Amino acid sequence: MMHRGPSPEFRERVLAQKTVWMGGAYDAFSAKMIERAGFEAIMTSGFGVSASLLGMPDAELYTLTENVGVVRNVVNAVDLPVVADIDTGYGNAINVMRSVREFENAGTAAVIMEDQVAPKRCPICVSGVETIPMEEAARKIEAAVEARCNPNMLIVARTDASSVPEAIARAKAYVAAGADVVQPISNTFRNLDALRALRQEAGVPLSLQVLGWLEQELAPVDIESVAGLATFPLVPLMSVAQVLQENLAQLVKDKHSRNLPHKRMVHHEFVSLIGFEEIERLQLKYLEDSPGRDAA
User: A Pfam family for this UniProt protein (predicted)?
Assistant: First the structure.
């Protein structure tokens, strides 16, 4: 397995706006499925990590170390660049410096940090969010840039500002502070023209979470006209949730698995997916008491 940490190729592609399409992972297994589907990179979704790890809402309830642990497992499970959602950076500018180093050490190719007050609130689930002063947020970006050891790791600055003019002003300030990419929220930018204005004013490619109106109304070519990173953050999580809910409800009702509404992956395909063949090869090679070693 070759781990794809910060690389000049990934950085150059994003900054050249040769859009990298990503799926949103919530654990190592979902990351493997995203890789298998053919996506070019993986984003660890804070919404998904909170739901999967804690069974709780995306309100920055998990800790820095818990998030880093999930991200490290994802990086170890796949051979794709991994972009990590690091929420607000878990504190002030000094906390951000440690956070960036921890995620870089875990092998991420990029981190996404937002300008909300900590602990954050998920903008797609609440009526409004509160942002920190623009100057403070810009200093946090400066600290993140200073803290990274590998300049190829991208710093993505997300702004949750509720008006287009403020979001554009913040994006420009964050780029001036050293951010490589900026990410708006879909609640603020409601059409493609507004996104194009943000792209032009910021002077760097956008990172877009393809959900809400972006998912329903924009064509891939529209997204590629402004974005260096484009992510479907919730489709994997919501797909699994729906299938589990329906299959388990039928299983409880029937007390057998013959009438499940959704097909299951067959056993041999699953064990191949998670790497049993490689483990068996290594066991035969290195473990003297492994059954079948002499025959091998």
Answer: PEP_mutase
Write down all domains in the chain, each with its CATH number in brackets.
8-233 (3.20.20.60), 241-286 (no CATH)
What residues are paired with 42 via a beta bridge? 23, 82
> Is 255's pLDDT higher than 60?
yes
What's the burial of 271, exposed, middle or buried (CB within 10 Å: 0-12/13-18/19+)? middle
Can you read off the two tokens belonging to residue 36?
Answer: 């298998």
User: Average of pLDDT values for 171-200?
Assistant: 97
Q: How far apart are CA 202 and CA 168, in angstroms?
A: 7
What string of H, E and C letters represents the secondary structure of the chain? CCCCCCCHHHHHHHHCCCCEEEEEECCHHHHHHHHHHCCCEEEECHHHHHHHHHCCCCCCCCCHHHHHHHHHHHHHHCCCCEEEECCCCCCCHHHHHHHHHHHHHCCCCEEEEECECCCCCCCCCCCCCCECCHHHHHHHHHHHHHHCCCCCCEEEEECCCCCHHHHHHHHHHHHHCCCCEEECCCCCCCCHHHHHHHHHHHCCCEEEECCCHHHHHCCHHHHHCCEEEEEECCHHHHHHHHHHHHHHHHHHHHCCCCCCCCCCCCHHHHHHHCCHHHHHHHHHHHCCCCCCCCCC
